[in-house]
Amino acid sequence: MGTTRKSEPSAAVGGLDTAQRVQSSGAARVARAAVEDAARLLSGAAWSDFCRSLEAAGRTILEADGREAPHVRAAGFRYLLGLVKVGIQQASELDPEQPRFIRIVDSDSKAGAENADNAYAHAHIRGDLVYRIRGRRGTVDTFLVEIKEGFMQLGQVRNFATLEASGLRLEPDGSFELHLGGKRREGNWLPLDPAATQVLIRQYFCDWEREIPASFEIECLGREGLPPPRLEPDAAARMLDDAGRHIAGSAAFWDEWVVALREKYRRDRIAPAEFYVGGADDIAYGNDYYELPDGEAMLIEFQPPQARYWAFQLCDLWFKTTDWPNHKSSINHHQARLDSDGRCRIVVAHVDPGVPNWLDTAGELEGVLQYRWIWTRDNPVPVLRRLPVAELRAVLPADTPRVTPGERRREVHARQLHRLRRERI
């Protein structure tokens, strides 16, 4: 007589094994959440939640310590409009099954001390799909294609894969194709982690007067010729939630950075550069607060790093770059003049001191000074000296040339034209 195998199926309950139960319960949770989200949208609750997120972001501006001055508060709400635009765009316009690139940061919408030398393009992706990017190299110094978990300011800090322009196989006319995801391929290919949600492209402009931007377009393979599905109420509710989280979360996160920089601030030194979780690979960021009374200048001196790229820039009290198209508020290794001793001397001042390496504060008495060493083999720490603007010439090398007002105006005009080329549509 045979033995009855009571343990078979070993984990059965109601005919389902453990894996099936987990899958079934997970599907049930998703279905319940969809019903709840749809109800929130149709009742108006999802819209109310979104509006409360906007109010929370506004409170961040209104309650920001040390930023009560009327012109600073005005700049804060202008900054918030940019966050609103980007939050809505990335939530409502970017579909991983119908992807396209948009500028998530530009000269009008700024956040998180974005690099004045960078043009940023962003598309949503899904780790289980396959994509093709077609593009043309242009003459921009270089660019990075990064596969990311999401937005650093929302706690999505992982970078899964990076490809630099020099690693691409190009056609003779400068065009290229890059595949993302799926099985490993010969040629241009990047893997997609299951948790990947974004592909980010950073173009690096060094010669602002001559470099031509690269171009990019993206498509999801297998979705060609198919329209997106009809937008259902539950998906619309999640879209509003996503936009609200992005706006309020970004405002709060970057506010905390400014507060932290102010707390660590020491008047007569510049903080060393560090690598940050969530920042791009191979970039050392130097972040420090500054205070600069009228009539005073900051003289920053350093031996240039052993790096392919380096740059300095000024940011305002909301941690966004100063108006770089209309003020000479950033400088990179290509634009800077080195002195005969091989060192670089940068002058930060409210008024034009008539020297080559001037950073224009645009009248801001306080803000953030930031520098980047990229693909660097060392990490020199700049030295800061404060002195009256009237005494600058006495401490600068004797062969420091004079920059006339006309020459400065031509410099700024070149920056304005560069913005038009970089952000053309």
CATH architecture of the largest domain: Sandwich
Report the sheet-strand fraction: 15-25%
Distance between the termini: 82 Å
The tally of domains stands at 2
What's the helical proportion of residues?
A: 25-40%
- Please report the number of helical segments: 6
CATH class type of the largest domain:
Mainly Beta
Radius of gyration: 26 Å
Helix/strand order, N-terminal first: HHHEEEEEEEEHEEEEEEEEHH
Low-confidence stretches: 1-16
Task: Note the topology.
Layout: H1 18-43, H2 45-62, H3 70-92, E1 118-124, E2 131-136, E3 142-148, E4 159-164, E5 175-180, E6 189-190, E7 198-204, E8 215-220, H4 233-264, E9 283-291, E10 296-302, E11 307-315, E12 330-332, E13 344-349, E14 358-360, E15 366-376, E16 383-388, H5 392-395, H6 405-422
Parallel strand pairs: 5-6, 13-14
Antiparallel strand pairs: 1-7, 2-5, 2-8, 3-4, 3-7, 9-15, 10-13, 10-16, 11-12, 11-15
Helix pairs in contact: 1-4, 2-3, 2-4, 3-4
Give descriptors for this structure:
Jelly Rolls; 425 residues; 28% helix; 6 helices; four-stranded antiparallel beta sheet; alpha+beta; disordered N terminus; four-stranded mixed beta sheet
Short description:
The protein is an alpha+beta fold and 425 residues long.
